[in-house]
Amino acid sequence: MREKVRPEPLPLDEIHRVAGVDASHKNNLACAAVVVFDFPSLEPIEQSIVDFQLSFPYIPGLLSFREAPGMLKAIERLTQLPDVLIVDGHGQAHPRRFGLACHLGVCLDLPAIGCAKSILVGRLAPLGLKSGSTAALSLEKEVLGIGLRTRTNVKPVYLSTGHRMDLISAQQIILACSRGYRLPEPIRLAHHLAKSASNALPDESVRIG
């Protein structure tokens, strides 16, 4: 599937709906949430939350096989697919160059951005402290992504191509979706919804119908 990833620019004027997706776990149960926003106003227009049972074990570097099934189900329940998917995870900044954002983007053939809170592989070049500052995330001579400061003096997020996206477009989209928090608004709200839903799940390890 890695060979199907297409890095390409996506102009902002072609984007009308952008979505954030995240998942939260409780024992062997999980909730996936996707929230769709109008772009560029960032008014929420639709959301979908799905409970699902984790059938794939936790293996570092293979998170997509654990979380993607539930996320895909949540996305497929939307009345209309977004123009861009922002994923709380990595794209090509991954040991196998195929993280969760690539997995979802290729499966849905949607433009996708990996927007992660920590580095999985590579080293970040020196990064300025002001909002909008960027620095390359590289491994040897290969650029895997960028670090982006979305808020002055706050930890950066780490962007990488998921599918039908390049780093310049990803940077522009994430900055346009930032509203004074470290995380861009689509995945910030998706994270909140997924976490709230998972907290309400039963403690027993039962399959959700």
What does this structure look like?
The chain is α+β, with helices and mostly antiparallel strands and 209 residues long. The chain has a single domain, classed as archaeoglobus fulgidus dsm 4304 superfamily (archaeoglobus fulgidus dsm 4304 fold), CATH 3.30.2170. It is 23% helix and 29% strand. The chain has a 9-stranded mixed sheet with strand order 3-2-1-4-5-9-8-7-6, with helices on both faces. The radius of gyration is 16 Å and the shape is globular. The C terminus is likely disordered.
List the helices and strands and how they pair.
Layout: E1 17-26, E2 29-38, E3 44-53, H1 63-76, E4 84-87, H2 100-108, E5 112-116, E6 123-124, E7 134-139, E8 142-148, E9 157-163, H3 167-176, H4 185-199
Parallel strand pairs: 1-4, 4-5
Antiparallel strand pairs: 1-2, 2-3, 5-9, 6-7, 7-8, 8-9
What's a quick, concise take on this entry?
With 209 residues, this protein is of the alpha+beta class.
